[in-house]
Amino acid sequence: MPDIVCGDLDSIRCHSLAWCRSEGAALVVDGNQNKTDLQKCLKSLRGLAKEWQDGVPTGYKLPQGFSEKDLNAVLVGGIGGRFDHGLAQLHHLYQETQDEYQFKGRIYMVNPDSVCFLLEKGLNKIYTPLGNGLFRESVGIIPIGRPSYVRTTGLEWNLTGGLTEFGGLLSTSNHIQSYWIEVDTSERILFTIELDPPMADMSVNLENMHRYVEEREARRTIEDVPRSSTDSSLVQGAANLKTGP
Fold first, then answer.
1. Which of 135, 138, 140 is nearest to 197 (CA)?
2. How far is CA 74 from CA 13, 22, 186, in A?
3. Percent helix / strand / coil, the chain, rounded to 5
């Protein structure tokens, strides 16, 4: 049962709406037609996190010292269904995390057989435990929006700093060879990994992803922290190519 149902609610069935109300779910109606329901949900989450941070009672138990930067979102079925909807969700994945006033945590899109999230410019170190109900070996590193120079370690077919782009080189169906992999990228880039096992039961995948996010957060001081532009050779190299000598 959801705690909050958010959106314009223009297509929700009457009996579904009545059931949500009877179960005590909060209804957040946002009629802005220039925003998708996903954007409205993320906005609602940001608002709750901000209220908690400011000491406003929200009715939700969050850890001591919690801030907006600690807020991660797991989107279930994020890119299933209509193809244009799937592309819009990937667009929001970029859009909602690129501005300092937007979503400050990481957004994971979970589907029956994979999960995807963004890697920031620079060096990213990613915890990739295989098996144990989490991941299988297959990964993809996809430049969406603009080409990216990418270097990796810990994969069967490592990238060596060359340009990746649609119509050129793409790293798909690559294989994990290490508990940790490194991705050094000149641009923000999409990372996908296969779930173990692929399941139609999304509730199981959601539970596993919560477990993974919690473990990642426990390790976050040493993993998945991008270097600054001056520390990443690929970011600096790409900047030199753009500006010239």
1. 135
2. 25, 25, 26
3. 30, 30, 45
Query: Helices 37-53 and 83-95 meet at what angle, rounded to 10?
Result: 30
Quote the tokens at residue 89. Answer: 């969700």
216: how many CB neighbours lie within 10 A of its CB? Answer: 16
Q: Which residues pair with 87 in a beta bridge?
A: none
Q: Say how far apart CA 79 and CA 89 lie, in whole Å.
A: 6
Q: Could you give the CA distance from residue 128 to residue 115 in angstroms, rounded to a whole number?
A: 12
Tokens read off for 205: 């995948």
d(CA 85, CA 232): 34
Give dist(CA 94, CA 104) in Å, integer: 12
In terms of pLDDT, which residue wins out, 59 or 188?
188
Least trusted range by pLDDT, from 40-54, 63-77, 200-214: 200-214
Q: How far out from the chain centre does Cα 133 lie? A: 19
